[in-house]
From TrEMBL:
Gene Ontology BP term (one): tRNA methylation
Domain of life of the source: Bacteria
TrmE-type G domain: residues covered: 222-373
Root EC class: hydrolase
Keyword set, alphabetical order: Cytoplasm, GTP-binding, Hydrolase, Magnesium, Metal-binding, Nucleotide-binding, Potassium, tRNA processing
CDD domains linked to this entry: trmE, TrmE_N
Quaternary structure and interacting proteins, as annotated: Homodimer. Heterotetramer of two MnmE and two MnmG subunits.
Role: Exhibits a very high intrinsic GTPase hydrolysis rate. Involved in the addition of a carboxymethylaminomethyl (cmnm) group at the wobble position (U34) of certain tRNAs, forming tRNA-cmnm(5)s(2)U34.
Binding site for Mg(2+): 236, 257
Name of the molecule in the record: tRNA modification GTPase MnmE
Cofactor note text: Binds 1 potassium ion per subunit.
Length: 452
């Protein structure tokens, strides 16, 4: 959305599927009179031009007499479409030269290339969805776990919009009662009991929604978990066990892993970026030393550190040194690996596992989840917010409500205090997009995929 003297009546087109060879590709078009514009490059032209809304038409995309591809076209008549405008989707063969030819033809035939998120932007402009749903569209696409995708789908179905609307109507009621009191100050019977405390239940609802933010982020973006520890402790063996794949080289030679490895896995629905690192020891070899430097860097940036100790070795000086260095660090979990051959009993608080037999693995996964969600709300059926934008606006609304309460307590005149309620309503209205500025929209939609 670069141009904010925005013309919602341009005909736009974009490839909605990846630029890659594939079975099928989808080319999306929309705009007023989109169907007749698309029909001009379709044969038989009339068939598309006359097609009923929500129907599929078979034919060819033709550049004059030249057939470019055999396709099907889905026809949507306004307002029954994703964007609310006439739309045509071409399902074409997934050939790169074919796709290119068709797009070039569209761009010569009155369509311009859609910007990122422009279809969804039009859906928003035509009131097909509020901003929380529009944000959810991209969140669904970028979801990295089952859970993240489900939570985003709830948002697309309006879970956030509904919660915000509930909160908004409560603030509106409060404002209305304040206004009655301002209009009829002497009419005791009509006068509702407006007290500072009345914002409490509303603030409570906002707090509840805000408390889901970190959980939402965790599910959407995932967390970094690192396997760290002395050489030969079994980090790479555990890495492979998490991946269920023989990815990292395992051997009994100390210092086997030099370059770190990483992979996305899912632990209980949380997307986890798991790192296998070079074992920590005094290294003579400069390459191994560089590997260890990188291990430490990854440890610094991790959400969870799995320090793997070798149960066969028992408690070593390295382990004690690490534990004292990370004493205050709540990101650490201590893993007592090789319990199938354990010489010594596990120290208190260590998670006992065997990378060889997978014993204790479920407990290890549980422990990771506990660290990730420590002090944080774990989502049930409630809406979970995932957008920094929404979080900031909820905080603004909460601040305004708190200022209102404080103003009343301070004995400020009611009409002045009521301004705070209007501020709260504005912040809430910005969440759903009733009140918005062009640059907010631009920032939001520019993160979208082209064709979405
Ligand atoms: N072919 C195709 N598949 C798709 C999409 C699409 O745009 N095209 N979607 C894109 O994200 C998702 C589905 N979302 C959609 C949302 C609304 C409408 C739509 O036509 N809405 C009309 C009619 C509703 C009805 O018939 O009940 C409307 O809201 O008025 C279509 C798809 C995923 N699959
Ligand atoms: N018995 C037993 N052996 C294990 C277990 N886990 C790892 N091993 C063995 O321990 C040796 C070292 O395992 P790795 O996974 O390569 O250890 P690492 O921590 O990645 O070592 P570096 O890459 O050198 O830092 C290998 O011979 C593994 O087969 C276990 O749970 N039980
Ligand atoms: Mg290794």
């Amino acid at each position: 959305m670069k141009d904010f003297k925005y013309d919602p009546d341009d005909l736009i087109a974009a490839l909605a599927t990846p630029w890659a060879e594939s079975a099928l590709a989808v080319i999306r078009t929309t705009g007023p009179d989109c169907i007749s514009a698309a029909a001009r490059i379709f044969s038989p032209s009339d068939k598309l031009d006359q097609a009923a809304g929500n129907s599929i038409v078979y034919g060819y995309i033709s550049d004059g007499e030249v057939k470019l591809d055999e396709v099907t076209a889905a026809v949507y008549r306004a307002p029954r479409s994703y964007t609310g405008q006439e739309s045509v989707e071409f399902f074409v063969h997934g050939s790169l030269p074919g796709i290119r030819k068709i797009l070039e033809l569209l761009f010569r035939s009155g369509f311009r290339e859609a910007s990122p998120g422009e279809f969804t932007f039009r859906a928003f402009l035509n009131q097909k969805m509020d901003l929380t749903r529009a944000e959810a569209v991209q969140e669904i696409i970028s979801a990295k776990s089952n859970q993240a995708q489900s939570l985003a789908l709830n948002r697309l179905s309006g879970s956030i919009e509904n919660s915000i609307n509930t909160i908004k109507s409560e603030v509106t009621d409060l404002l209305a009662s304040v206004e009655i009191q301002l209009d009829y100050p002497e009419d005791e019977a009509e006068m509702p009991d407006v007290e500072a405390g009345e914002t409490k239940p509303i603030v409570g609802k906002i707090d509840r929604l805000l408390s889901t933010y970190r959980a939402g982020k965790i599910y959407q973006e995932g967390v970094r978990v690192v396997l760290a520890g002395k050489t030969n402790a079994g980090k790479s063996s555990l890495f492979n066990l998490f991946l269920k794949e023989d990815r990292s080289i395992v051997s009994d030679i100390h210092g086997t892993t030099r370059d770190y490895l990483e992979s996305w896995i899912s632990i209980g629905g949380i997307p986890v970026r798991l790192f296998d690192t070079a074992g920590l020891r005094e290294a003579d070899h400069p390459i191994e030393a560089e590997g260890i430097r990188r291990s430490n860097e990854i440890i610094d940036n991790a959400h969870v550190i799995l320090y793997v100790a070798d149960a066969q070795e028992g408690i070593t000086a390295d382990l004690e040194a690490f534990m004292s260095a990370y004493k205050e660090d709540s990101r650490c979990l201590y893993v007592w690996n090789k319990i199938d051959k354990a010489a010594t009993a596990a120290p208190d608080g260590f998670i006992k596992v065997s990378a060889l037999t997978a014993e204790g693995f479920a407990e290890l996964e549980e422990a990771i989840k506990t660290v990730v969600f420590r002090d944080h709300y774990v989502p049930g059926n409630e809406p979970v917010i995932d957008s920094m934008r929404q979080k900031k606006l909820l905080e603004e609304a909460r601040e305004a409500l708190n200022r209102y309460s404080q103003a009343l307590l301070d004995g400020m005149p009611m009409d002045m205090a009521a301004v705070e309620l209007t501020d709260a309503l504005n912040a809430l209205g910005e969440i759903t997009g009733e009140v918005t500025s062009a640059d907010v929209l631009e920032r939001m939609f520019s993160n979208f995929c082209v064709g979405k």
